[in-house]
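Re: the 585-residue chain
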Amino acid sequence: LGYTREELLLMSVHEIQMRYDAETLRHRRARMVPGTPLVSQGLHRRKDGTTFPVEVRSSLVDLGEHRIIHSLARDVTERKLAEDALLDSEARTRAVLNTAVDGIVTIDARGIVSSYNPASERIFGYSAKDVLGRNIALLMPEPYRREHEGDLAGGGETRLPEVIAIGREMVARRRDGSTVPIELTVSEYRFRGETMYTWIVRDITERKRAEAALQQSEDRYRRLVEESLQGFLVYRGSHILYANRAEADTFGFASPEDMVGTSVDDLLAPRERERLISWRAARVRGEDVPARYEYEGRRRDGTPVWVDNMVKVISWEGQPAMQAIHIDVTARKLAEDELRLYSAKLERSNQELQEFAFVASHDLQEPLRKIQAFGEVLLEEYGGTLDSEGKTYLEFMQGAAVRMQTLIQDLLSLSRVTSPTNPFEPVDLNEVMGAIVTDMAPKVEEAQATIRIGDLPTVRADPTQMYQLLQNLVSNALKYHGTEPPVVTVTSQALPGTGDVELTVEDNGIGFEEQHAQRIFGIFQRLHGRGKYEGTGIGLAICQRIVERHGGTIAARGKPGQGAAFVLTLPMDSQERGTPDAADA
């Protein structure tokens, strides 16, 4: 206290004790009984004014005429500090328990719950008052409750050591009877001589849901890969790590497992190995090389197979590897080879056709010209000596020669349609139709026909063939007319979003049965006898060839006695088609 003995003897007790005033002290003393000590705690004040905690043990002593109070005061500063630290620690622990995301449950060796934090209430749905003092088996689902009750609660010695400081996943029971997946970690400690266990419970519902979704996704991907018609191959270096069914089929293996462990280099044709091994090394080094290419491979039996190959670097079991996706294009390659052979044959055929056209234009027509010339001489010089029957025969001969010459010329025109002639250039179809009307003026006047021309476009085409195309269609309209004077209408319209234009040549002529709409485009196909309408039956075939060469289409529609219409579609910017030269360009 810092006082001397003499100073203390002159002081009142309440000057030293800080907690109680004089009245309180008198009241406490009045309740004291001899033989029964009174223990109290309070603060004493030192001479310098500082205070310190004390524990006072006071006893009433009877001295006969007098009673005195004998007090022993003990400085409990260290104990108070320890108690305050303990209270502070308990407060911090309580704050941790109350704010923890994970459930924290404390049980004794019999499984009786002694603490249960708010997070546990959220996880299990039980309030603390519902669980405290009860067995932890309450939180375990049937049929596992009995197992948990025996192993984790009542018989901790059996299985608790398996999860102490390690943890495991298990299923717990909520208040509503539903189950919740949890991750449980148990720690063991001693408290007042008793073994206690602390359970750290984490709700892993979302994790389990994510794992299930991931597993489902992996299963779907695995099924897609396994059942895919494309081959999947994974390899590291040249060592094959995985192959699917389609890959095994492509390279002639009995099963995907037979491919695992073999070398990817064995799947290459000898002439491809050096190129592809170099490519693979460059790809691994990260160089900019194509990820997709075709190569010739070898099946297990040594037969060739062509594959379309797309490769990328992936992670396989934590290490880089190459994934190849293969499409068997052997059938396409064979078809391309056949197409090349066919194109070569077609080119030879076209050459032969051009040679035939040359012969037809010179050698075949020369005898016909002589027949016609000598026929005219006979008719002029000796016509007077021939009777009517002889003249008729001579006229038949000359008519047949004319028809033969026309037929040869039409065949020659047909052969020239797909032969390279004039290059494509912008062609104003209005100008083409103007030239046709001028050239056909005598026929138009003779038939008393009317030709109506709409606003026609400019297309990229062969100008000579555009003239031939429209001239043939107009000529047919003038030829196949009924009793009424022919009316021919030529119109056009753009086809939105296609870059094409539609031309229509329509007439009011005799028409035709709809069933013949395709037939009339065949060579030598005529719907009427030669005696009624002249012609060789080649004109519409020429039209179809011209349209197809320009990448378009032509169709016909009509009804008997109601006229016919020919509908053409042509690209505004045509590229020549239908010839080997165009295909190779």
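Confidence is low (pLDDT under 50) at residues 152-158, 578-585.
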